[in-house]
Structure formats: structure tokens, C-alpha cells
Amino acid sequence: MPSFVAIRTLPGITPDALAGAGARVKTCEAGMRSEGVPVRWLRSFFLPSVSQTHCYFEGPSLQAVEELNQRAGVPFERIIEVAEMTPESV
Q: H helices of the chain, where?
């Protein structure tokens, strides 16, 4: 299944607000999965020095990942497909 990254700039975001956004994504993910859309939040990284998050997802399409983020009310600058590379894969 394709993987995607949602890139967000969130100036002034607090740890509580980040946790709240994650909880909303989890709730909306469960809803979409129950509707037959196999979308999954994998992990996120917060880059405090630039107030940015990179949130990784698996999903059947870019549109499904965008819909998940929109349902959760979590803003994003862009969502793009990614290819994973690990030390073990090279």
C-alpha cells in the first residue's frame, strides 16, 4: 500500500494540542476503516526548531489520506507520496 507524508507548520503548537490532534486522527482513522477505507497513521515526527510536523500514513490513495486529515481537522501544507528507505534496505 502506498505511503504518504503530511507536512505541517504549526507555530506555537503545544504538547497538549499535538496530543489532541493525534487523538482526532486516530478516531477518524477508525471511522474510515469501518467504512472500508484502509488508511492508517504510522507515526509522526515533531521538529520543534521549525514548528513543523511530518506525519506518515499508509492509504489506498492521496485522496484518502487528505480526507483523513480533513475529517480530523488537522491542517497540512501538503501531502505527498513517499518511498521508505532504511539502513537494512540498502
A: 15-34, 62-72
Domain spans in the chain, listed from the N-terminal domain onward: 3-89
Domain 3-89 has CATH 3.30.70.3090: yes
Distances from the Cα of 72 to the Cα of 31, 65, 85, 87, 89, angstroms = 11, 11, 28, 33, 33
pLDDT per position as a tens digit, 17-28 = 999 999 999 999
End-to-end CA distance of the chain: give it in Å, rounded.
20
pTM over cut 0.85? yes
